[in-house]
């Protein structure tokens, strides 16, 4: 891992995007099971 150009962009900045993807998968499953779930809104 070379931190030459990503010195101002720590790895944790990518966490929100990963969380969004995980939530999308979870919400997708919840919508299939319960369409009236919060994720459906």
Give an account of the 3D structure.
This protein has 41 residues and is mainly alpha-helical. It contains one helix and no strands. It is rod-shaped. The protein starts with 14 loop residues before the first helix and ends in an 8-residue tail after the last helix. The model has no long low-confidence stretch (mean pLDDT 59). This is Nonsense-mediated mRNA decay protein, putative.
Blueprint of the fold:
Blueprint: H1 15-33
Tally the helices.
Answer: 1
Helix and strand composition category: mainly alpha
Radius of gyration, in angstroms, nearest whole number? 16 Å
Low-confidence stretches: none
Outline the biggest β-sheet: none
Distance between the first and last residues' Cα? 40 Å
Strand content range: under 5%
Mean of all residue-level pLDDT scores? 59
- The helical percent reads 40-55%
Protein name: Nonsense-mediated mRNA decay protein, putative
Organism: Entamoeba histolytica KU27
What tags apply to this protein structure?
41 residues, mainly alpha, rod-shaped
């Amino acid at each position: 891992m070379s931190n030459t150009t990503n010195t101002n962009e720590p790895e944790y900045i990518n966490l929100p995007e990963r969380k969004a993807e995980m939530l999308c998968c979870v919400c997708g499953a919840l919508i299939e099971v319960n369409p009236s779930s919060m994720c459906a809104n």
